[in-house]
Amino acid sequence: MPTPREYFTNSREADLADRVWQLSAALPGSWKLNFVHEAIYNAYWPWVNKRIVCARDWITTKRESDGVGGVKALNGVFGTDFTAEEIGDVEHFYVAALIGTLGGPAGGVMLNFLGDTIWEMYVGPLRVAWNLNWSRKGLNRGARVVAQNLLYNSEQLTGPDWAGTRFGSFFAVNELIESIHR
């Protein structure tokens, strides 16, 4: 069965994805999911993998909790030195895996393609633009920041987002097939 590690070319991100995946196996019963993830976790869809729900919730909570992209919170748990960018890439992977598992093998890829494209290419840059100081002096800087965000987000679409989509969409199916062949 493929693990998240196998979907990364960056060995540090692969290590982090693996650490989060291992931790996610122990989270049920000891971790309080946010209400949206709890609803997904408790709903019955045979293709949704609850471990992916836990992994996504945990890494997103850590990334958002310390104001520096999870560097303090996540590294404090693992005793590591992952960067905010590495944490962000692995979080993107698990976000895409969650959306992929919601859609299942039939709809996960399409659902994620639409959702990721809308988020990464429209919502994300609009949020960045909204939060900038667009004074007369800051116009050029603001445009550069939005352009950098668009470039970064387009790299997410073809990297961690696409890898997570494939992992999430087919993980439960792979589990089922392996259980039949045991």
Task: Give your account of this protein's structure.
This protein is mainly α and about 180 residues long. It has one domain (about 5-180). It has 7 helices and no strands. It has helices at about 10-25, 35-40, 50-65, 70-80, 85-130, 140-160, 160-180. Helix 1 crosses helix 3 (about 50-65). The protein is globular, with a radius of gyration of 17 Å. The model has no long low-confidence stretch (mean pLDDT about 80).
Could you give the count of β-strands? 0
Elements, N to C (H/E): HHHHHHH
Largest sheet: none
Helix content bin: over 70%
Overall geometry comes to globular
Number of domains: 1
Share of β-strand residues: under 5%
Count, helices:
7
Please name the defining characteristics of this protein.
182 residues, 75% helix, mainly alpha, globular
Question: Topology of this structure?
Answer:
Blueprint: H1 11-24, H2 35-42, H3 50-65, H4 71-78, H5 84-131, H6 139-158, H7 160-181
Helix pairs in contact: 1-3, 1-5, 2-3, 3-5, 5-6, 5-7, 6-7
